[in-house]
Design brief:
Elements (H helix, E strand, L loop, with lengths): L14 E2 L22 E11 L10 E4 L2 E4 L4 E2 L7 E2 L4 E3 L2 H5 L25 E9 L9 E9 L21 E2 L2 E5 L1 E10 L7 E7 L17 E13 L2 E8 L13 H6 L3 E7 L11 E3 L4 E4 L28 E10 L4 E9 L8 E7 L17 E5 L4 E8 L4 H5 L6 E2 L2 E10 L2 E13 L4
Parallel strand pairs: 12-14, 19-24
Antiparallel strand pairs: 1-22, 2-26, 3-4, 4-7, 5-6, 5-8, 8-9, 9-12, 10-11, 12-13, 14-15, 15-16, 16-17, 17-18, 19-20, 20-21, 21-22, 23-25, 25-26
Amino acid sequence: MKTNKSIVRILVSGLLFSMSLAACSTKKETTQTVRVTPDYKLIPAKKMLFNSFVDCNMAEVWVGDTFRIFPGKYGEDPLWGNARDLKYTDGANAEETFARKGTDFIEPKMPKNAPVGLPGVHGAVWFETVYQDSTDKSGKTLYAVYHNENYPATLPFDPKTGEGYKADNWPQGITGPTSPAAVCRIGIMKSTNGGKAWENKGIFIEDLQARMILKPHNTSKTFAGGVGDPSAVASGEYLYLFYGEYGYPGQYDGKRYDPKKESSGQCISVARIRLSDLDNPAGKARRWDGNGFNAPYNGIGAPIASLQIPENAGGGPASSPKGSFYWGPSVSWNTYLRCWVMLMGKAVGPSWAGSSIHISFNTNRDLGEALQSQQWSKPKLLLDKPGFFLWYPSLQPMNTPEDIAQKNTCLRLGKRARLFVKNIKPEKSEYLSEYILEFSGDTN
């Protein structure tokens, strides 16, 4: 559930962690042995407060010499009201852009919500990643990977297609006992003018009604199920999608419900789609099933095992208020370390309660070879701020000559980057940066 309100009332304090990590060697199934020993430290920095609404990963690109970002939310939402907060702004570098005033943000032209029962965009959308078509030298052809939320009211079940949701035994949502939980799915939009106007291309991946987790078992006040909170990166001929998996790994049956089986199929997973299929993505993506990218876009995949929290360490199903799991991945390629870096939040209670941010590494440049998309190091604590909910961490470029010359974004970074994260407490929520993350070490 993405929301602009907080849901806890606990004391506030800050805690800075400076840590080092010896991350994993690749498994013997791969064709080569690659080792990485990255170190990192958080350096306190002048606070940077973002001045527009953020409730997701920050999507951004360079269009020529302009750094452009796409925060916010757009569309129909029965819980929080219809939104027109998905906007864009730009500048000569990342820090200039992030410092823009709220009045500097512009609404792009978005596809209208379709009436119930008709094809098109239903529910609200958030842009989580923007992939820039490398074949367009102007830099203006963009594909937005969006998080989408719906309810039985906005996307009712259609027995002819199997799409949509039934209201029977629907779990409680975040705003109170009579509010419904959302279902998340992931789609693609396209722009040919640098993000000033967008066209919906369809759903990337989703879970159908049979995998929704209903009453009386779903009590976490999060999702009824589905897939969401993604981060997407290109590797070879594919766009790889890292996302939260919140559905039941099979058909949910209240009489045979097994919490251990549920948690075994959650939470950070990976799917992929050919870059050539982004103009017509429906049905084209494949999800990792434990052996390869074999599961269909609406089928049952398998999560990344190293990113799951074992039961003896507090892990549990996402539908339980006592289940603990990592979620909200933000993935980037680090040119200094020559490896992938993933940041993620950690839910430890209902409504995504959790005050910590964690980090993981993957040394494999090619995510499509053998099991290399799965070889992430065990997450380590990066930052903890008791009293806050910390959501949507990301690493962002700065205004250094290197970042500008290399046109770095949240998808590609160097030795130093700004750490941004949404800080939520009862009085207010802010998307801000208080630290620089500096890497050291080598890969070979």
